[in-house]
Amino acid sequence: MKPGAWVQRARDLVRGRHFSSILTLALVALIAAVLSVLAVAKFQPLTNADNFIKDIEFAFAAHEQPSDERVRIVSIDEATLRHLPYRSPIDRGMLAELLKRLDESHPKVIGIDILFDQPTEPAKDAALEQVIRSMKTPLVIAYTEEPGNVTSKQLAYLRSFVPEKDRATPDLPKDSYGIVRTIHPGMTVADGRYLLSFERAIAAKAGVKTADKTQTIVWRKPPKGQKYDYFETGAWTVNQYAPPLFKLVGPAQFGGRIVLVGSDLTLVDRHRTPLATISLDGVMPGVFAHAYGISTLLDGAVSPFAGWETNLAVALVLALLAALLGVLNFHLAPRLVVLAAIVAAYCVAGLYIYYYSDLVLDLLAPSLACILSFIAMDSLTGLQARRQRLEIQGMFSRYLSPKVVDFLVAHPERASLEAERRVMTYLFTDIANFTTFSEKMESRELAELINEYLEGMTQVVQKHDGMVDKFIGDAVFAIFNVPVYDLPDHAERAVRCALDMDTFSEEFRRKCQARGQDFGITRIGVLTGPAAVGNFGSKTRLSYTAQGDAVNAASRLEGLNKQFGTHICVAGETRDLCKTIQFREIASVILKGKTVPTMVFEALHPGSRREEMAPRYRAAFEKAAARDPEARDLFAALAAEAPEDSCIRWHAERLAQGHEGVEIHMTEK
């Protein structure tokens, strides 16, 4: 193959060369990346989704880690409460003994996650207060001044009980789904003092400097089948040791470590954490959540999550790939498959990076950037194609119904030679004596007149969601319920269209007569039935139309108007589907080539004289159908009252000539 041919083939792979420049690709990719990173960071629903995805990453890719040896938890558990005289508040005599023993074990810091907001037994309260104020070990005690947590009376007691130097706020910030993810930095209380959070206060007394900002907790994945418990010990167990024995056991368990005292009770102070994606143990007591936060601060608060700079760079790379994919001149489906493969490959790569390097890349923002960049570039490069499609629609809508064109553009698989069989309603019109009328006019004048007439008739059809199939000279063939829409009321739409056509054509005829032009009445036939509809013809010339016996019958129905002197003839099958339109029976007709009679009806204009006379007409018709001689007199009386009514006159003349019944056999089309 010649070099020029290779170049041309490469060019053919790209749609819309104007939008395939390096500058445009880079700009689209950059905008998509920036918007995606910002949206995930600032738009709460996306932030929540991102957190959920990171929890899944944690469950699959995080390394298992043993318990943190630097932190111990002494819990007020159910086993402890079973030995106490009451469940709440926690027995302060027991707490006093517990703190004395822990203090003798020489821990680094003791944190008490219990709120002392009300008095209990005076002697026990005094004993605990004395122990707290005399302890050698640095203490951090839960304290709050938030009105939602304590009343003014409770706050006064809390201030008197907890030394100012030991106070810390135990708040556990949660996201919008109630999941603990971060360490609270602290808060300013009523007197203007800044109160550190429980975790930061403990880290400070342990000699670790922390930043005054919200920090992400680094959750440790426990070994498989184990609970990450920070070597939890029940308070009752600690107090049950004999003093000589505890002097040996205590320092080994708690010496030089941070000891947290708090409750571990079912349904009390429970908090959902990211560990809940692994097991139910992830819904844990508050003291455990504090322990994870303290471990994070002791490790220097190094978050495993990549910063926004890294995530933006990754998002930009994926967005560039997607932008390149967006300009390729392939069918949309395979390009979407490739796009999905890129996103999936990145997500898998992100899990591997997390597993092997402990770096958590944002999966959501780069994926969104990839998708957004593809959509933007595909839309830009598809502008020219859409313009061409609009030109085609405008061109062919002159000949076909615009709705059919729109349908075929949206569903190209339907634009084939294959037809489908369905029930539709067919409407045929014809102008009486048009051939004689046209012979008296100049060609140009005739063309202008008939075009004006057909334009009005077409607008009426499209108003009722019908399709003008074709014009046959002065005749109009329209179909209702063609594949543009599925219209359950297509029969009623067709009949209402016929009534509006009759109104339009009569007004048009009166205008012509005012100009001295003897324009004939328009006759309309409407019938509902099954037929094949689709593209019929050759590969070089197609016609979207309906074919079948029902179509032929509808055409012959239009011709019956000449026989009865009516404007609109409607088949019985159609009339049965129209529940809100008034009709009157005309005759039971056996059409040419048929053996089974069809009851033919005339659709009546609301408020017309024919509608007013309909009840008496039906009574006369029923007499005629029953071959009752009285029918002749009834129709004669109606004819005398309404001599302009051609249908009544037809029945009256026929009965006067000695004919009986309402059945007629047509020998002509």
Describe it.
With 669 residues, the protein is of the alpha/beta class. The chain folds into 3 domains: 15-61 and 305-381, no CATH class; 71-298, no CATH class; 401-575 and 607-665, 2-Layer Sandwich (Alpha-Beta Plaits). It is 49% helix and 16% strand. It contains 25 helices and 21 strands. Strands 13, 14, 15, 16, 17, 18, 19, 20 and 21 form a 9-stranded mixed β-sheet that branches. A hairpin with a 4-residue loop joins strand 16 and strand 17 (542-547). The longest helix is centred in the middle third of the chain and has 26 residues, at 332-357.
Highlighted features:
669 residues, alpha/beta, Alpha-Beta Plaits, nine-stranded mixed β-sheet, six-stranded parallel β-sheet, 16% strand, elongated, disordered N terminus
